[in-house]
Amino acid sequence: MIIKSTSPFKVALPFGSGKNKLNFTPASSGREKIKRYKIACSFQINGTGISSLSPIESQKNETLENINQLSAPTMENWELINGKPLINAEPSTGRLLKDGLIFQQNFTVRSYEIGSDFKISIESLMNYLQETSLNHLRSAGILTDGFGSTIEMTEKDLIWVACWSHTEVDHYPSWADVVQVDVWNYMAGRKGLRCDWLIRDFNTGKTLIRATSLYAMMNKKTRKFAKASEEIMGGMKPIMLRYCDPLVNRDGRKLLQLDADKADYIRSGLNPGWTDMDVNQHVSHIKLVNYILEGVPSSIVKSCELCAMTLEYRKECSADSVLQSVSKFCSNHLINNQEIEFDHSLSVEGGPEVVRGRTRWRKRS
């Protein structure tokens, strides 16, 4: 089964009656050099949309109450004068499609989500994946106080934990770009839940990123894996596909446990802190990605960008752990003389292995 979203990329801005008449560009009348700052920042809300205020009226209404009233629609639906969306053009909570089987949400890449190259960071990208997955459950009305847990799971002290993930990046969105994320779920075997994500450019529909992850149930008290029985999974059936071809297949090659003595690069003394913890009382699997990548030499990071990543999560990690990240060139690390591959291993110093991985890097364009 191939999943295709038939929703249009252009959607109406959700104001009042649904017909929004936003126009920041003055009419052509010889006054085209009017300061656009006043036009873009002075608004009042009426029954059908937004209209501009005169400078005098704007000054009279600059009270805290009016600012609070205006901030929500202005920040949610502001467009640039050239027509390119600057902020999410749909409600930030997203929407259900295909009778709830697919969840779709838009994000605007913020300044604090980018790196030195003005493109989104891998951590922020993975946050988008987690956010849409959880919002899918919440929008369907089956999310309880647990982090992605259904009512049946909460009653039995069960939580979802990531087992492995695979991500492929065709193009990185940049600061102020709007991306559209689709997510759907289906069973993987008898114990696992698989989530697939498709990230596209909101304006063009161009595919940017494809990702897939496998999750398993764990008892949050015993910290042991549990079987995903029919009774427990019953609450999620309304939003789960029965049959689905994977959007992207993980790298089928076995991930290797690396010997630090034979590694090409080692980064020791990595200390996760309390800010790296998630609600399941362990270091977030997203934060662990940062520590894996600490083992990549700076020369590669500066000249290349990450284009594929496969991770296998093996042990939990606490905030008081001291980690060691090691990386080694794969035996066939040069692909068409353009891409470089690394094997990775993240472990507690003197202790168990936490994550194994493989990454592929391409030359920056």
- Order of secondary-structure elements: HEEHHEEHHEEEEEHEEHHEEEE
Task: Tell me the radius of gyration.
Answer: 24 Å
The secondary-structure class comes to alpha+beta
Which range does the strand content fall in? Answer: 25-35%
For the largest beta-sheet, the strand count, sense and barrel status come to:
13 strands, mixed
Shape: globular
Distance between the termini: 35 Å
Total DSSP E strands: 15
How many DSSP helices? 8
Q: Give the low-pLDDT segments.
A: 1-91
State the share of residues found in helices, binned by percent: 10-25%
How would you state the average pLDDT, rounded?
A: 77
Q: Would you kindly provide a written description of the structure presented here, covering whatever features stand out?
A:
The strands form two sheets. Strands 3, 4, 5, 6, 7, 8, 9, 10, 11, 12, 13, 14 and 15 form a 13-stranded mixed beta sheet that branches. The protein has a two-stranded antiparallel ribbon with strand order 1-2. The radius of gyration is 24 Å and the shape is globular. Helices cover 19% and strands 32% of the residues. Strand 13 (323-335) and strand 14 form a beta hairpin. Helix 4 runs antiparallel to helix 7. It has 365 residues and is of the alpha+beta class.
